[in-house]
Amino acid sequence: MLLMYYILKDKEPVRCQDSLKFAEWLKESSLVVKSIRIKNYTILTIFLGIDLNHQDEGDPVLFETIVFEKSLCNRIEIDRYCTWEEAMNGHHRLLNKYTKLPSSAN
Fold first, then answer.
1. pLDDT tens across 48-83, in order?
2. Virtual CA dihedral for 80, 33, 37, 100, nearest 10 degrees?
3. Which residues, other chains included, contact 80 with Cβ-Cβ below 8 Å and sequence gap of 6+?
4. Which H/E stretch holds residue 11?
5. 3 vs 18: CA distance, rounded Å
6. Which partner from 2, 30, 69, 76 sits 20 to 30 angstroms from 39, CA to CA?
7. Could you tell me where the DSSP H helices lie in 29-102?
8. H or E segment to which residue 77 belongs
9. What is the number of helices (H) and of strands (E) in the chain?
10. Could you tell me which residues come within 8 angstroms of residue 10 by beta carbon, excluding any fewer than 6 positions away?
């Protein structure tokens, strides 16, 4: 399977045929779409820059939201998306979910 690279232009993923061009873009860009710490959780949504859809069909999977508890070493939930809009909706859904959870006693 051939690795497909993508860059973001105005929140739209654009396929990048050249890995060197991708690396140059990566040096100048942040992959973080949105990040927030709430209670004991960090909710981080990123642009991956590579397609994680390992199927022969379907849209490229280019974004993911990860929920960490206490530290960035303790991943407790992950969701992946194809578009910026889906990623933002997913980020807000998880933010809402973890905002409603009671704080753990530490």
1. 999 998 887 889 999 999 999 877 778 899 999 999
2. -50
3. 52, 61, 63, 64
4. none
5. 11
6. 30
7. 84-100
8. strand 75-81
9. 2, 6
10. none
